[in-house]
Amino acid sequence: MPLATPGHAAPADADAVLTDASRPLRADAARNREALLTAAEEEFAAQGLDASIADIARRAGVAKGTVFRHFATKEELATAIAARHAQELTAVARRLRGSADAGAALLEFMTEAAGRLQRRRVAVLMTVPAPGSELARLQQEVHDEVVLLTDEARAAGAVRPDITGTDVFLLMCAPVHAVDYVADPPPELWRRYVGVVFDGLRPDGAHPLAHAAPTWP
């Protein structure tokens, strides 16, 4: 699932947010931080970015001041959520690389990526990071792992030869976006569109693509 969509910019101080978060924390502070990230995801999914810090603190079971000890602004909190998501996707992709069935591995990754976005429904996962930021580096890691998974699938003949890892990276969110146009969609409808997208990657009966593959910055 691409983690970047035009129109949603990350805060300029995203580097500072992630650098602070990467420093070793006491066990209780680390638990509080994880609880805050989880609570913020849930509040953002329910209320969008209008969710208040007070509501996030209440859901996490901590004082409001605890939120600000970890994240100076709501934007910093949103950036940290996007970073955690990127790290999780990178770990999934690395686990799947080198699978005996490279096509099945790529399909599993695409299903996992779309499923995570569908379950979370958090707009901050679509954040465009500031150039050169730590979040940009983490999103680049996801892209690079998708490229390697796609290379393996292409080498195995599981996907058409003109498909690139960037193509797959940009298509990861498509199944979830497709169901946004359906009123009260069944919870698993997005899986249908994972299948549609992946079938478009298969080599059998493929028609030439109308445009060259995009480059990745």
Helix/strand layout:
Layout (H helix, E strand, L loop, with lengths): L13 H9 L4 H21 L5 H8 L3 H7 L3 H23 L5 H19 L13 H22 L9 H7 L2 H6 L9 H13 L16
Overview features:
mainly alpha, 217 residues, disordered N terminus, elongated, Tetracycline Repressor, domain 2
Structure notes:
The chain is mainly alpha-helical. The protein has one domain (14-201): Tetracycline Repressor, domain 2 (Orthogonal Bundle). Helices cover 62% and strands 0% of the residues. The protein has helices spanning 14-22, 27-47, 53-60, 64-70, 74-96, 102-120, 134-155, 165-171, 174-179, 189-201. The longest helix has 23 residues, at 74-96. Mean pLDDT is 85; it is low at 3-21.
In a nutshell, what does this entry contain?
The protein has 217 residues and is an all-alpha fold.
